[in-house]
Automatic annotation (TrEMBL):
This is Precorrin-4 C(11)-methyltransferase. Its EC number is 2.1.1.133. The keyword Translocase does not apply. Belongs to the precorrin methyltransferase family. It comes from the Bacteria. SUPFAM superfamilies: Tetrapyrrole methylase (SSF53790).
C-alpha cells in the first residue's frame, strides 16, 4: 500500500488537481482535516472507503491510522488543504512513515496564496517592480519562527510578503512592516479564497489592520503586502518582447 499526501486546494472542491481526484478515487482509506477540506471532495472516495476526520487527532493518532491502513493493505489518501509543500505539517508525518518503512507519495495542490492572487486578479511578480515573493507566518502560540525570519528582518527586502495564519495579528504585522514598506504600500486580505463565502479586503498598510478588524476576519485568510499589488506602470516583460530573438525549428 501507499500513503498519498494530496493537496486538496484552497477550498473550492473543483480546484483539486486531476491527479489528486483520481488518486482519491482509488484509495480505500481517506484521512482529511474536516475543518479545512471541503466535504464535497469526499464524494470522490470509492464506495465503502473508510473516512477519518483528523481535525481532533494528534500526530500519534494520525500515524496510528496510517499504520493501521498499511497493515490492512489499503492505499491511503491523506488530504491536506492547499499544497503539501507549505504550512501543511506533512514533513513530520513523512518522518514517521520513513521510520516505519511505509511508502508514500506527494500529490501537489493549488496553494492558498495562488487562489488569493487569482481572486485579486494580480500577478505577484511584475517586471521592474518586484520579482520575489516571500511566504511566511508570524510567531504566536504555535511553533516559534527561526532566527532571522521575523517580519522586521524579512521586510528589509521590500519583496511582496504573503502571510498565512496572521489575520488576528494584523496590528503586529503592520507595525513590523511599516518602516520598510511605508504607509501607502498596497495591502490586501483574501479570506476563504475560492469558496462561496470568499471575502476580499483591499487597502494600504495605513488602514488594512482596521479593515480586517471591521470585517471580523480572524482565520482562514491570506494577507499580502507589496508594491506589485498596485503596480500599473511597468515595463513589459522580456518574455514576449518583439526584440527577443526567437528561433524556429
Amino acid at each position: 500500500m501507499t500513503v498519498y499526501f494530496i493537496g486538496a486546494g484552497p477550498g473550492a472542491a473543483d480546484l483539486i488537481t486531476v491527479r489528486g481526484a483520481r488518486t482519491l478515487a482509488a484509495c480505500g482509506v481517506c484521512l482529511y482535516a474536516g475543518s479545512l477540506v471541503p466535504r464535497e471532495l469526499l464524494a470522490e472516495c470509492p464506495p465503502g472507503a473508510r473516512l477519518v476526520d483528523t481535525a481532533q487527532l494528534d500526530l500519534d493518532e494520525i500515524t496510528a491510522e496510517l499504520l493501521r491502513a498499511h497493515q490492512e493493505g489499503h492505499d491511503v489518501a491523506r488530504l491536506h488543504s492547499g499544497d503539501p509543500s507549505v504550512f501543511s505539517a506533512v514533513a513530520e508525518q513523512m518522518r514517521r512513515l520513513d521510520a516505519a518503512g511505509v511508502p508514500y507519495e506527494v500529490v501537489p495542490g493549488v496553494p492558498a496564496f495562488a487562489a488569493a492572487a487569482a481572486s485579486l486578479k494580480r500577478e505577484l511578480t511584475v517586471p521592474t517592480v518586484g520579482q520575489t515573493v516571500i511566504l511566511t507566518r508570524v510567531a504566536h502560540r504555535a511553533t516559534a519562527m527561526p532566527d532571522g525570519e521575523d517580519l522586521a528582518t524579512l521586510g528589509r527586502s521590500g519583496a511582496l510578503i504573503v502571510l498565512h495564519l496572521a489575520a488576528r495579528y494584523a496590528d503586529r504585522v503592520v507595525g513590523e512592516l511599516l518602516p520598510h514598506y511605508g504607509a501607502d504600500c498596497p495591502a490586501a486580505v483574501v479570506a476563504y479564497a475560492s469558496r462561496p463565502e470568499e471575502l476580499i479586503i483591499r487597502g494600504t498598510l495605513d488602514d488594512i489592520a482596521g479593515k480586517i478588524k471591521d470585517a471580523g476576519v480572524l482565520r482562514t485568510a491570506v494577507i499580502m503586502v507589496g508594491r506589485t499589488l498596485g503596480a500599473e506602470q511597468f515595463r513589459d516583460s522580456h518574455l514576449y518582447s518583439p526584440e527577443r530573438e526567437r528561433h524556429t525549428c
